[in-house]
Amino acid sequence: MATETASLPSGPPILTDGDVDALAWQFLHSSYACDDYADWPLDRRLDGFLRREGLVRLVEDGDTYGLILDRVMAYIAARARLSD
Fold first, then answer.
1. Which residue pairs, CB below 8 angstroms and at least 24 apart, start in 73-80?
2. Residue 2 phi/psi, 5° resolution?
3. From CA 53, how far away is CA 4, in angstroms rounded?
4. Lesser CB count within 10 Å: N end or C end of the chain?
5. Within 10 A of 67 (CB to CB), how many other CB atoms are there?
6. C-alpha span between 84 and 49 (Å, rounded)
7. pLDDT of 67-81, one tens digit each?
8. What span, in angstroms and rounded, lies between the C-alpha atoms of 46 and 62?
9. What confidence score (pLDDT) does residue 10 get?
């Protein structure tokens, strides 16, 4: 009797716009956005955050990672405009 094993999808991760927003918000409220990591470039901090959350697949998919990084930068810019 042959057995089948289910495999994880091998395509790129699928995130909704809301998922990207949620990840950006979580990152901005994490220790990676605090002064403790101020010497790290933003992309390295986001990489560390996603890996710590077990989201390595998002780090390894360049397009998805770029979307999240762009959203984080947009939120940082919006916050800076509000504080002016």
1. 73/42, 74/24, 75/24, 75/25, 75/28, 76/28
2. -85, 145
3. 30
4. N
5. 18
6. 28
7. 999 999 999 999 888
8. 13
9. 64
